[in-house]
Design brief:
By secondary structure, the protein is an alpha+beta fold. The protein is built from four helices and seven strands, in the order E-H-E-E-E-H-E-H-E-H-E.
C-alpha cells in the first residue's frame, strides 16, 4: 500500500455544498474499492474504539471539466483506478434513474463533478502536480 496514493479532484465550477457532496461520494467509493487504505482502529482516552481512518493524506484538488476528461484518459493509459462522478449524480436521489441517465450519455459528453484516482504515488503526483487545492 505504501506505493499507492489516492486523490480527489473536483470540478472548479462547483459551489461549496455540491463540492462537499461530490468529495464525500467519491471518497466513500474509494474506500470501498481500496479498503487497504483504512488504518487500524483508533482508541480514545476513555478506551472507546473508533473506526480507523486513512493514515495518508487525500489531496482534494480542482480542475475544469476539460482537464477532468484529460485526466481520465491519462489514468487509463497508466492503468490507474478512476472513479467518475458525473453531474447526473446530483440531479436525483434515485440510483436507478441516475444509472439510466448516465447510460444514455456518450463518455465524451459526460460533465464531471469530480473524479477519484488511485495509483502509484510518484506517477500520480506527477500527473496532478499542476492542479491547485480545492477551495
Amino acid at each position: 500500500m505504501s506505493d499507492l496514493r489516492c486523490v480527489v479532484i473536483l470540478n472548479s465550477d462547483l459551489p461549496a455544498g455540491k463540492a462537499a457532496n461530490a468529495a464525500a461520494v467519491i471518497s466513500l467509493t474509494l474506500g470501498q474499492r481500496h479498503p487497504h487504505f483504512v488504518g487500524p482502529e483508533l482508541v480514545d482516552g476513555n478506551g472507546s474504539v473508533w473506526p480507523g481512518l486513512i493514515p495518508v493524506g487525500i489531496p482534494v484538488l480542482t480542475a475544469s471539466n476539460d482537464q477532468l476528461r484529460s485526466l481520465v484518459e491519462a489514468c487509463r493509459e497508466r492503468q490507474f483506478d478512476v472513479i467518475l462522478f458525473p453531474v447526473e449524480g446530483q440531479m436525483t436521489v434515485d440510483y436507478a434513474a441516475f444509472s439510466q441517465a448516465v447510460s444514455e450519455i456518450p463518455e465524451a459528453q459526460l460533465h464531471h463533478l469530480g473524479i477519484g484516482i488511485t495509483g502509484e504515488k510518484k506517477a500520480l503526483r506527477k500527473l496532478t502536480a499542476k492542479l491547485k487545492l480545492f477551495g
